[in-house]
Amino acid sequence: MENNFLELKLDNYKPLREVVFDLIRGAIISGMLKPGERLMEVQLAEKMGVSRTPIREAIRKLELEGLVIMIPRKGAYVADLSIKNITDVLEVRAALEGLASGLAAIRMTEEEIKELELVARHFEQAMNSNDVEGIIQTDIEFHEKIFKSTRNEKLQQLANSLMEQVQRFRIMYVNKSAKSVNLIKEHYKIVEAISKRNRAVAENIAKIHIQNAEKDMMRMLGNKARGNESP
User: Fold this and answer.
1) Same domain as 128, residue 29
2) Residue 194's domain is classified under what CATH number?
3) Which tens digit of pLDDT belongs to each residue from 13-44?
4) pTM, whole model, 2 decimals?
């Protein structure tokens, strides 16, 4: 925790406990606080310049959200990215992405399609230059543009509720995936299907795109588990 990502910035409209909670939660979602990392109340309080009370309250709320686990006589730890968590989230996301891409094929304007294609190009450039931050940001932008183009506020709300959970998986995926070419091709295929106004194809490709990500993550977690086994 030597970096300044836990630097406290007071918000006049929020109680201190909420600011502390949002900051720690954001650090977990972004991967700054990594799965399995111990959350020391004293160190967190010193780092953020607050008492231990709001830290303790934040950890308790994060435990309820499943982002933190409490181990008896050991303390609080950032929850691991389990296979069950990834599967549950990505199954829902695949359905939402398919629906959104299908609707985008009939509702996205020509100007929005051009913007989506441009973002796909930026994603490819970030991949080719191994710009991890750029990869994450352009991937987020790509999918957000699709959801926004549906003009369906309820769908966008559902997608946003999953986005932070997906973010933890996305960071792990883009950092370790060996199938970057597939990611690039799949983005372009989605753009092509939308531009051709082919709803069924756009929906199918978007679902496959997320399912492929799930398969890669399962493989990576399986490799990690085998690597941790005793010889």
Assistant:
1) no
2) 1.20.120.530
3) 788 999 999 999 988 887 889 889 999 999 99
4) 0.75
